[in-house]
Design brief:
By secondary structure, the protein is of the alpha/beta class. It has a single domain, classed as Leucine Aminopeptidase, subunit E, domain 1. It has five helices and six strands. Strands 1-6-5-2-4-3 form a six-stranded mixed sheet, sandwiched between helices. The termini are close together. The mean pLDDT is 97. It binds adenosine-5'-diphosphate. The site of adenosine-5'-diphosphate (ADP) has 21 residues, from helix 1. Adenosine-5'-diphosphate binds next to helix 1.
Length: 170
């Protein structure tokens, strides 16, 4: 599966994947960070559709159209807030990636791009988050050949280095 996972540095709002994930909050009503950037790039119709979804649990995902984005769909997933690692954070973070990929498969997507969920404002240590993310993605890909490529779109070099290291250890 490793050959179907790519790590790049960039801005996920410019992604041309079939679907992009959004590190949302449980209200799905927009926030800062990558969430704010995705809403700005997609336009106000994205928030209008999100309002019809009535939120989302941490570790699950909900899908909308992509509106002004190149991506056809946005997979909104609230990541866990880091609180030391003893509150099920890893299971919830793995759930984010798995739930997004399940929705992507159901909607016929072949390529999916993710930001580094929970490692911004939510404070998840990036080295740990990278290992959880990539093993969840690799597990999913092992039994889902319909997904041709999953890309981690890292906003900065430090984040990219953490995902590169985790991929080489996979
Ligand atoms: P969370 O609340 O889940 O921690 P954040 O949006 O605060 O979410 O941060 C998640 C990651 O997304 C961070 O690594 C941040 O640098 C990154 N990020 C912010 N803007 C973008 C963007 N336009 N494209 C890709 N990643 C981004």
């Amino acid at each position: 599966m490793k050959d179907r996972i790519e790590i790049i540095q960039g801005d996920i709002t410019r992604s041309d994947a079939d679907a992009i994930a959004n590190a949302a909050n449980t209200s799905l009503l927009g926030g800062g960070g990558v969430d704010g950037a995705i809403h700005r790039a997609a336009g106000p119709q994205l928030l209008a559709e999100c309002r019809t979804l009535h939120g989302c649990e941490t570790g699950k995902a909900k899908i909308t159209r992509g509106y002004n984005l190149k991506a056809k769909y946005v997979l909104h997933t609230p990541g866990p807030v880091w609180s030391g690692g003893g509150r099920g954070e890893a299971e919830k973070l793995a759930g984010c990636y798995r739930s997004c990929l399940e929705l992507a498969s159901e909607h016929g997507c072949r390529t999916v791009d993710f930001p580094s969920i929970s490692t911004g404002v939510y404070g998840y240590p990036v080295d740990r988050a990278a290992r959880v993310a990539l093993s969840a993605i690799a597990d999913y890909l092992a039994s889902h050949p319909e997904i041709e490529r999953v890309r981690m779109v890292c906003f900065d070099a430090h984040t990219k280095a953490a995902y590169d290291a985790a991929l080489s250890e996979l």
